[in-house]
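Thread: Newbie trying to understand structure tokens

Hi all, I'm a second-year student working on a class project, and my supervisor (Dr. K.) asked me to get a predicted structure for one chain before our next meeting. I've only ever worked with sequences, so writing a 3D structure as a token string is new to me. If someone could post the tokens and maybe explain what I'm looking at, I'd be very grateful. Here's the chain:
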Amino acid sequence: MIIKILKSKKEERRKFKEIRKKDSKYEKTKVRKNVELYLSSLDQNKLKNKNLAIYWPLKYEIDLRGLKNKYSLALPRCTTNHNLEFHLWNDSPLKNDINGIPYPNNKNLLSYKQISHIFVPCLSIDKNFNRLGYGGGYFDKLRSPEHWRLVPCIGILTERCVSKNSLTKAEWDIPLSGFITDKDIFI
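---
Reply by user tm_fold:
Sure, no problem. This is what the structure looks like when written as tokens:
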């Protein structure tokens, strides 16, 4: 059964990576604007003294780093055993984690209490908020303790990558809290 799930997810990843390559600069800009619109709709007092957890964008991913101009941000660090931790993104230099992704090289490790929202890149997501990522399981492992599931975790992608069908779901997959595209804020 697990082999079948893994094969199915591999095919879904291949399909949505190809679809995502077609995302335009305009669509990606609209996603960023919708993230900003969503954040501006929130009670700003709840965002004070907290950090938004974003990601360092890989090729074809939507870049949210511009939020740093208005909000306090955290970036993830992938560690051994598929653990994910968030560090305050301040003026400290960036260093590559075990996957070669930059993170703030500082001792400002944040707990779930210090993060108001987690924004997650998606290859795809379905209407049940099941996320298709790269298969590392980092976000699912991070969110396996219930206290981390209390932090809203929102998928970021363009509308074209929202699956019209249910995505393959494994028992370890934890649905997100919602998603934001160039056309929708679905939370």
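A couple of things are worth pointing out once you decode it. The chain has a mean pLDDT of 96. The CA atoms of residues 79 and 98 lie 6 Å apart. Feel free to ask follow-ups in this thread.
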